[in-house]
Amino acid sequence: ALREKEAALQSLSHQRMAEDQAIEAQVLQLRAMQERARAVIKRLVNVEEASESAYTCLSCLGILKKPTICVPCGHTFCSGCVGRSRACQECDLEVRHCFHSETLDHLAGKFTYRKQVLNELLHEIEGA
């Protein structure tokens, strides 16, 4: 009876070791997946940062708010940053007309949202 109990105990011990090894293998796989996800997210953040200048006001250097495009030079400023002078703040060309770009406003808003979500995701995955 004692030998049977020892054999059963040894069998349970081997089973437990096998389960522990399986768990350790899963943890290693999850860590590798986490590292790959972190690398992909960092690349996406870099892509977004590289495109940030397209959504940046040439005056305040912030993300465009109500983008206003100067004609004929095409320089873009926040509506609040467009000067009252008849010359473009960036190139000094005479500004004949300014117009609000709804499309650029929409894209700048999406850029801000994507950047925020990616940074939150990166923070979350680095904290894990």
TrEMBL record:
Classification via Gene3D superfamilies: Zinc/RING finger domain, C3HC4 (zinc finger)
RING-type domain mapped to chain residues: 57-92
Sorted UniProt keywords: Metal-binding, Zinc, Zinc-finger
Record-level Gene Ontology MF annotations: zinc ion binding
TM region(s), chain numbering: none
Record-linked InterPro entries: Znf_C3HC4_RING-type, Znf_FYVE_PHD, Znf_RING, Znf_RING/FYVE/PHD, Znf_RING_CS
PROSITE patterns the record matches: ZF_RING_1, ZF_RING_2
Any Pfam family: zf-C3HC4
Name of the protein: RING-type domain-containing protein
Organism annotation: Eutreptiella gymnastica
